[in-house]
């Protein structure tokens, strides 16, 4: 929750007067304390953590939830159930790197929550060419970050910087979250 990527995005969104709440899944907190390494917790535990956080914040109707990679994926799996106002995924893991046939998209075909997925054009978890062929709900908007990888970092030859890509991502989140 406090990686440079997450800190930059959270601060950038908060600078626009939008309240940002960050939390950790139990397996990440355990890693931080040196108690556990390895794979993330099982999906039911990750989903329950989202439910608990949304409940602590007073319910979903006024919340936009989301996260980076796995955090965004799990948020997308509970968004409809929690009746949140929206969903933002930064670097969605459409499939494991190098395994494009192992899709994690079934629930995205029927998602009813308005969603914004911000994805790097060369993300190994789902690039522009791959994602274009997926069956995604009409409520999902995918925005592509020029030359970006899974953390939106471009190649030096792309003509854009990491800072520019993060600013673009922040602007997209702010525009999505801000009431029209």
Tell me about this structure.
It is a single chain. Helices cover 36% and strands 12% of the residues. The protein has 180 residues and is of the alpha/beta class. It has a single domain (4-177), classed as 3-Layer(aba) Sandwich (Rossmann fold), CATH 3.40.50. Helix 3 crosses helix 4 (70-82). The longest helix has 16 residues, at 162-177. The protein is globular. It starts with a helix and ends with a helix.
Characteristic key phrases:
180 residues, alpha/beta
Q: CATH superfamily, please?
A: Alpha/Beta hydrolase fold, catalytic domain
Indicate the mean pLDDT.
93
What number of structural domains do the residues give?
1
Shape, please?
Answer: globular
Based on helices, strands and strand pairing, what is the structural class? alpha/beta
Helical fraction equals 25-40%
CATH class: Alpha Beta
| Oligomer status | single chain
Q: Give the amount of beta strand, in percent.
A: 5-15%
Instruction: Summarize the main sheet.
Output: 4 strands, parallel
* CATH fold description: Rossmann fold
> How large is the count of helical segments?
6
The CATH architecture comes to 3-Layer(aba) Sandwich
End-to-end Cα distance: 29 Å
Total count of strands:
4
Residue windows where pLDDT falls under 50 for at least 5 positions: none
Strand order of the largest sheet: 1-2-3-4
What would you report as the Rg, rounded to the nearest angstrom?
16 Å
């Amino acid at each position: 929750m406090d990686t440079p990527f997450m800190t930059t995005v959270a601060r950038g969104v908060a600078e626009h007067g939008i309240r940002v709440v960050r939390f950790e899944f139990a397996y990440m907190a355990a890693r931080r304390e040196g108690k556990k390494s390895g794979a993330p917790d099982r999906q039911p535990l990750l989903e329950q953590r989202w439910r608990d956080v949304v409940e602590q914040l007073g319910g979903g109707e006024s919340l936009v939830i989301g996260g980076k990679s796995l955090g965004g994926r799990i948020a997308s799996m509970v968004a409809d159930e929690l009746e949140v106002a929206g969903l933002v995924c930064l670097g969605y893991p459409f499939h494991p790197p190098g395994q494009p046939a192992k899709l994690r998209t079934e629930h995205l075909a029927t998602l009813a929550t308005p969603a914004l997925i911000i994805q790097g054009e060369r993300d190994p978890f789902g690039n522009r060419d791959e994602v274009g062929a997926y069956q995604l709900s009409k409520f999902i908007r995918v925005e592509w970050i020029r030359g970006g990888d899974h953390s939106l970092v471009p190649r030096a030859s792309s003509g854009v910087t990491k800072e520019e890509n993060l600013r673009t991502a922040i602007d997209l989140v702010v525009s999505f979250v801000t009431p029209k």
